[in-house]
Amino acid sequence: MTDPAPGREAFEAEVIPQLDSLYRLALRLTTDPSRAEDLVQDTVLKAFRSWQRFQPGTNIRSWLFTILRNTFINDYRRRQREPIPMDLETAEPHASFRAVDDEDPEGTFFSRIVDAKVLEAIDRLPEEFREVLVLSDIENLPYAEIADVLSIPVGTVKSRLFRARRQLQEVLYDHAVEMGYIRARDRAPLKQ
Amino acid sequence: MAGGPKCREALSLLQDYLKEEITPENAAKITEHLEKCRPCFEHLQFEKRFLEMLEHKARGQCCPDRLRARILTELRSELDSSAET
Question: B11, A93: Cβ pair inside 8 Å?
Fold first, then answer.
């Protein structure tokens, strides 16, 4: 029973099931399918080369996401698409909900929006919002692990998530109005 | 009426409440408030629908098979080259 490649099977068993998640994060970060593929491949090879340093029992996904993000920052980041300009400090916190309050309080309009439109809206978020939203709301990583991956405090994870979701809701709401899924209503004033 | 201090507190924590990322004490306070406050309860449904939509619509993309195959090939050639040295 001499495995010519010690650790390879364990590595593949742990890492291959995570390829979908890695690919999704790579797509959202690069916003380009072919660069996303290269980024995932680089990530997996880097992870393999430092497999000995991975501590069994710790979270494999956080570890892989960290490698992927660092690789992206060092080797892949380039000028992003222009993010949607929005003054997040003064924007009214629950404007989308207020706007649909009477007509669609449960937000059923969300389910009418096509997947591609949702992904496009995510891709237009500023990078620091996009990464936190993908890790939390798409990949379901707990806040504490997101804090580790991004090297930021949990409080910052929370505040970025709050703003990311709010901005995404605004964009999707506007899209739903444009498509006629819901009727436009005057937004609540920014400040009473 | 939405807008009181309890509503404001609940609304600021609704998303973290849904993600089960708040203390049990705060969760209990919010649950209690939601049982009494219809507008906040509706807002909870809205946030819930939003989070469900997001996960559902953005998780559809999978790693392409050719990439999976490429990675496995690379891994094995990586091993061969390290075995030679």
Answer: yes
Q: Is B45 on the interface with A (CB under 8 A)?
A: yes
Distance of residue B78 Cα from the nearest chain A Cα, in angstroms: 8
The CATH class, in words, for B5-84 is mainly alpha
CA-CA-CA-CA torsion sign (A151, A153, A157, A163): negative
Q: What is the mean pLDDT of chain B?
A: 89
Contact criterion met (CB < 8 Å) for A94 and B59 = no
* Separation of alpha carbons A135 and A150, rounded Å: 10
A16 within 8 A of B68, measured Cβ to Cβ: yes
Whether A65 contacts A141, CB under 8 Å: yes
What domains lie within chain A, and their CATH numbers? 8-76 (1.10.1740.10), 95-178 (1.10.10.10)
Which residue in A has a C-alpha nearest to residue B79's C-alpha? Answer: A5
> Smallest CA–CA separation between A82 and chain B, in Å?
21
Assign A81 a pLDDT band (cuts: 50, 70, 90).
low
Q: Give residue-wise pLDDT tens across range B15-56.
A: 999 999 999 999 999 999 999 999 999 999 999 999 999 998
Identity of the residue in B43, B60, B78 whose CB atom sits nearest the CB atom of A94: B43
Q: Is B14 on the interface with A (CB under 8 A)?
A: no
Mean pLDDT of chain A: 84
Residue B1 predicted with pLDDT over 70: no
Residue A62's nearest CA partner among A22, A28, A27, A26 is A22
Nearest CA in chain B to A44: B71
